[in-house]
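Entry 12.
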Amino acid sequence: MTTDGTGSDFIGYPHRHLLGIEGLTASEIRYLLDLSESYVDLNSRSDGRDGDPRCRLLAGRTLVNLFFENSTRTLTSFELAGKLLGAEVINMAVATSSVKKGETLIDTAMTLNAMHPDLLVVRHDQSGAAKLLSEKVNCAVINAGDGSHEHPTQALLDALTVRQVKGRLEGLIVAICGDIMHSRVARSNIHLLGTMGAQVRVIGPPTLMPPKIERLGVASFIDMRAGLKDADIVMMLRLQVERMQGAYVPSIREYFRFFGLDYDKLGEAKDDAIIMHPGPMNRGVEIDSEVADDYGRSLIRQQVEMGVTVRMAVLDALTRQIRVERKDED
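Predicted 3D structure (tokens):
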């Protein structure tokens, strides 16, 4: 397997786009994680990156970040990942674009397509938006979050973070806690972790639990202590207030009492259980500040760091596929 990040045309991820984790095989996920591992050193290097051939991997290619929702970690990490690999990176300011003048998503796609970008990263508040764009443009499309559907690169970076600490994914007990109903992060992680052999539990109030969630191969709990029992990984989620229509919890205070992570509830998990959160965190709502800042057990900072690494790998993998497709056309 080629995982050296030097631009080999070996295809371990034979797809033009990355629209979700659902449907990917274990070997395809493992390939992306292995490729991500090869970029850890490039991302963390502090002695300069000049001379590393990977920094020219995307030279001459254009990466467009098209974000219809606000983002800090995801947008910045895609921008940095593209620049580290030598791409020309364009961040489209949707707030000042023609979208605000009434242009449809399809019209935006046609406009972008006429500019011939190589890679398009899309975040949108509607589920299915990234897939729709992928059907209208010629470039590779990466889903950076679409509504309550999926966020594939977040699941990949979470998996990479876990694998670096625990050495594996198979057999681990992972408890995903909070607003499961509205969380695209939860859905992508459920698909990835289940495919890779982890045991996944979801924990939350009945009002924030999707109906028939067990069909995805998870065990569901409305009692946080029971759900955290002997867990290896505790993954907290924020309340997606912007996607809620109506009141899903009686009060923030009561929500934290029953579903906020503090040391008392964490005591139900294994002694070496690690804590994760995709961000942004609402301290005192879904997680206690002291727990979030427990650098012996919290991997929240490492998740951010792995975000750049994973996104470099995804850009690399899709660019390899582009090269192969163009060779076939020739």
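Annotation: Residues 300-329 form the longest helix (30 residues). Residues 30 and 266 are 30 Å apart (CA to CA).
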